[in-house]
Amino acid sequence: MTLATASLEQPQSQCDGNFILGQKTMDVEERKSSNFWLFKLLFNWTSSSSIMLRAVEKKILSFLKTPYRGFFVDIGPAIGEADKIWTISLNTESKEVPLVLLHGLGAGVAMWVMNLDSIAKDRPVYAMDVLGFGRSSRPSFSNDALICEKQFVKSVEEWRREMNINSMVLLGHSMGGFIASSYALSYPEKVHHLILADPWGFPEKPSDANNTRQIPLWVRALAYALTPLNPLWALRAAGPLGQWVVEKTRPDITRKFAAAVEEDNNLLPQYIHQCNAQTPSGESAFHTMMASFGWAKYPMIHRIKNVRDDIPITFIYGSRSWIDSSSGEKIKAQRVRSKVDIKIVSGAGHHVYADKPEVFNRYVNETCELYRLYRKEPIIRETTESDDEVSSTNLQAEAQKSQQSELQKEENSEADKNLSDGQQTDEVAPNLKQQ
């Protein structure tokens, strides 16, 4: 008896029951399919965010006038199995001591777009996406604050080793300033000068609530409400609306960068969203190191006095920042045998590099020039991965050099001639070795 005849011979009630059961089965399958597409619709941005991040970063950096090169630096199993740090470099032909930039929480290399042209004019500049942020690898950090801090430091040192940079001016903003200071404690022989832009994690958390008045109400409310959570979880929870969340909660970000990106008001909110739409590896590490949003579990003010005396330190604070600038004065008093400068940028907030970029750039350039006599001869050999990204101006400059030295090699410049100003290429570039 076939299955078909068996169905026909069954009682009507049973047949109806099987029909209903079959319908229910179909409904379940349809519901599964529907749920799958709904899930894909809601979370598709996560799987494609790395591609979108790359695109928006390139768009922002296309406004630079200085040729730059973007590449991954393979630092091996620093924390994860095979970590890579996304890096952009400018003016690497200069023999001056290189300036290395470490960004703050939730940021990336493109946030320096208003600074790079100026500060790279007279020296090599390298900006990296700190491990766990931006386009760099996102390994799992330790749940111990001190170990977590050392892991950040190790990633910077492995990056420096791969780049073969003997000595550098290390500039860190906010969380990047905390990491830079810890690095100077661990590897003082590699730090020519330490520049700390509105650094996070220096003062002790005050016991007196009145001492927190200068911290904006929204920061205090956020810190209180989100203590158990990663600070930027709301951007990921918002899904495709993450960019809208940035635009509505931080309209000042758009205003700060408007001139630099020629009034394209979507670029910076989109960039910040995409920087933080992926696995919050570095953000979780920051959460581990913080006592609450404004303070570190292990404040740097108790330790930075141990940075070697011959390393000058320059603090650059925004006059309107919620960061406590009195830490700089205390550290200056501690380091009586060392050079410590404190610069206050009038009218600037925490993002001092973006609020008053001209003043910030001038302070950085003056600082680098002032302490140039202290330099240790750098040896820079730039190591890149296979997916180099090169600005069009950089490609054109290389093509011109090639034509001057080898007039017969027409194929070397053919691709570059087809690129217009501001355009960028995704072609694979060979590894570079600067001798």
From TrEMBL:
Keyword Transcription carried by entry: no
Gene: Abhd4_0
Record keyword Acyltransferase present: yes
Ranges of Basic and acidic residues composition bias in the record: 407-419
Function in brief: Coenzyme A-dependent lysophosphatidic acid acyltransferase that catalyzes the transfer of an acyl group on a lysophosphatidic acid. Functions preferentially with 1-oleoyl-lysophosphatidic acid followed by 1-palmitoyl-lysophosphatidic acid, 1-stearoyl-lysophosphatidic acid and 1-arachidonoyl-lysophosphatidic acid as lipid acceptor. Functions preferentially with arachidonoyl-CoA followed by oleoyl-CoA as acyl group donors. Functions in phosphatidic acid biosynthesis. May regulate the cellular storage of triacylglycerol through activation of the phospholipase PNPLA2.
EC number: 2.3.1.51
Biased segments, Polar residues type: 420-435
InterPro entries: AB_hydrolase_1, AB_hydrolase_fold
AB hydrolase-1 domain residues: 98-357
Domain of life: Eukaryota
GO process annotations (BP): cell differentiation; fatty acid metabolic process; lipid homeostasis; phosphatidic acid biosynthetic process
Annotated family: Belongs to the peptidase S33 family. ABHD4/ABHD5 subfamily.
Main subcellular localisation: cytoplasm
GO molecular function: 1-acylglycerol-3-phosphate O-acyltransferase activity; carboxylic ester hydrolase activity
Protein's name according to its UniProt entry: 1-acylglycerol-3-phosphate O-acyltransferase ABHD5
Bias kind Low complexity: ranges: 395-406
SUPFAM superfamilies noted in UniProt: alpha/beta-Hydrolases (SSF53474)
GO cellular component, one term: mitochondrion
Compartments it resides in: Cytoplasm; Lipid droplet
Catalytic activity of the protein: a 1-acyl-sn-glycero-3-phosphate + an acyl-CoA = a 1,2-diacyl-sn-glycero-3-phosphate + CoA; 1-(9Z-octadecenoyl)-sn-glycero-3-phosphate + hexadecanoyl-CoA = 1-(9Z)-octadecenoyl-2-hexadecanoyl-sn-glycero-3-phosphate + CoA; 1-hexadecanoyl-sn-glycero-3-phosphate + (9Z)-octadecenoyl-CoA = 1-hexadecanoyl-2-(9Z-octadecenoyl)-sn-glycero-3-phosphate + CoA; eicosanoyl-CoA + 1-(9Z-octadecenoyl)-sn-glycero-3-phosphate = 1-(9Z)-octadecenoyl-2-eicosanoyl-sn-glycero-3-phosphate + CoA
Keywords, sorted A to Z: Acyltransferase, Cytoplasm, Differentiation, Fatty acid metabolism, Hydrolase, Lipid biosynthesis, Lipid droplet, Lipid metabolism, Transferase
Region (Disordered): 384-435
